[in-house]
Design goal:
By secondary structure, the chain is mainly beta. 6% of the residues lie in helices and 47% in strands. The strands form 4 sheets. Strands 2, 3, 4, 6 and 9 form a 5-stranded antiparallel sheet that branches. A 4-stranded antiparallel sheet has the order 5-1-7-8, with no helix packed on it. A hairpin with a 2-residue loop joins β2 and β3. The longest helix has 15 residues. The relative contact order is 0.15. About 5% of the residues have low confidence.
Length: 260
């Protein structure tokens, strides 16, 4: 009876060595960045890279789930015998021509969590006219930044359908880039509102400037009075009463930059 016992022990050891990873994806809302839809029904795979190698491609799949919906948040647990330890990067691969526009992903294991931003945006598709088959996203650092915005109290100042992104600039040309400025499930940037947004896995910078861009997609104009950015080596506070942002240049500017 030793032979079956040995096999059972080997099987148990193999199973116990499997490592689980949690992958949380945030798909951009419909019409953002100028794409009619952002979700996909095409198969999507991820390969995780860390301190000790790569996992190889693992499919992101849930039973009775029709792919990734526009504006949706999807969570997956994938397992493999490869333990990469601390996660540094993730490669997302699509196998189908139904394109997908990813905003960001949060990947975690027992060694920690990283947030990966797909900006500038890479559209995933096997159709070369629409995008690329894969994109490699990496953590930019380990620092959390907190962005606080104060929307004007003047009429028609708020907007919650806005593809806003931010770039943080530090010394010596160092930069950090974020995904969408958005809190899922919340009506952000309403008239007179004070909103807070969090951005993780960014480099610790001595902040000199921040830039906010109104990307193609969404609609309306946002008028704001103040922006505060905390994190890095300093807090910056810009009082910019009545500044207007809009992709429609008749209503505001597409791009603003504030420096200390």
């Amino acid at each position: 009876m030793r032979f079956p016992i040995v096999l059972l022990a080997v099987f148990a050891l193999t199973v116990s060595r499997r490592t689980s990873y949690r992958v949380k994806t945030f798909t951009t809302p419909r019409n953002y960045y100028g794409y009619g839809h952002s979700g996909t029904n095409s198969p999507v795979y991820v390969s995780l890279e860390g301190q000790r190698g790569k996992t190889g491609y693992l499919r992101l799949h849930k039973r009775n789930c029709n792919g990734f919906s526009s504006g949706g948040v999807d969570s997956f647990v994938v397992g493999t015998s490869v333990n990469v330890r601390r996660i540094k990067c993730a490669v997302f691969l699509i196998r189908g021509n139904d394109y997908w526009v990813l905003d960001k992903a949060i990947v975690s294991n027992r060694y920690g969590s990283v947030t990966l931003y797909n900006y500038p945006v890479t559209v995933l598709s096997t159709d070369r006219r629409e995008g690329r088959r894969w994109v490699r996203l990496c953590a930019q650092g380990r620092t959390r930044y907190t962005l606080t915005t104060v929307t004007s109290t003047r009429p028609h100042s708020g907007s919650d359908t806005f593809a806003l992104t931010m770039t943080i600039q530090g010394k010596c040309g160092r930069v950090a880039r974020t995904g969408l400025i958005d809190n899922k499930g919340k009506n952000d940037l309403e008239k007179g509102a004070v909103d807070t947004f969090y951005f993780d896995s960014l480099p610790r910078l001595n902040v000199k400037c921040i830039s906010i861009r109104a990307n193609k997609g969404g609609h309306d104009m946002w008028r704001f009075d103040r922006i505060i950015l905390r994190g890095g080596r300093r807090t910056v506070d810009f009082k910019v009463k009545g500044t207007r942002l809009s992709y429609d240049t008749r209503e505001g500017r597409r791009f603003v930059k504030f420096c200390v």
